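Quick one: structure for this chain?
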Amino acid sequence: MKRLMTTLSGLALAGAMTTAGAAEITVGGKNFTEQQILSNMTTQYLESLGYDVENRSGMGSAVLRQAQENGQIDLYWEYTGTSLINYNDVTERLSPEETYARVKELDAEKGLVWLDPSNANNTYALAMREADAEERGIASLSDLAQAINDGGEDLTFALNAEFYAREDGWRPLQQAYDFRVDRGNIKRMDSGLVYPALRDGDVEVGLVFATDGRIPAFDFRVLEDDQGYFPAYALTPVVRQETLEENPDLAKQMNALSTLLDDATMAELNARVDVERENIEDVAQSFLEDNELL
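Got it. Here's what it folds into:
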């Protein structure tokens, strides 16, 4: 495979190649499609640069984080909101920029370095079928609230049980946007069942994750969170400080990969696996080749 020379962003990395005999880097990943794609992509990418890489994907979130803190995992892709809320117990509502700055500061105390965040934000979102949203004139959550309050729209919602019940979930979302939906118009179901229910017209609005591949595949419109209710979950490479000290070019190389990722890109990659049933390794490889990283 070719060594990395440039990225689409024009970042020159000539001279930033790792030398033979570089220390082994263990790349981790969680146990869902997006994370498996990223861990495989990172493994192929770093191997092409001469690193000796071990891929340990398919781990639970808490176990993976603990493994990194313990030095068993060198690098994986984490979400800013997950670290803020789950690992650092910060509950105040912060902007995406504030969220990144806070987790970067707090995790540095634990020997973990947050590199440059991507433009992929796998946060909660509400979605509608594109044609239905267009017909009703709904593009944002404020539009949705207005349609319910002023237009008398009788809409049915699909939510997972956790979001419906949690203290920062459905009830405060209604308060933030000043609307109310009757209990009879809410269907609670597993997250994976929301997508076909929305696609098939069983509900008008569904709770989704913003980079899920079924959003473009099923022609859904993600409603703009114009009041910034949902926490930011910016996808970001996180590396142990000790690993960066041993591999000084690693930060620049991972940042070059991070800058290529956004919501649309991740949704497309996820769809190729979840909807089109392509092999994860092939999807990761083709992305790297298309962006001249292999």
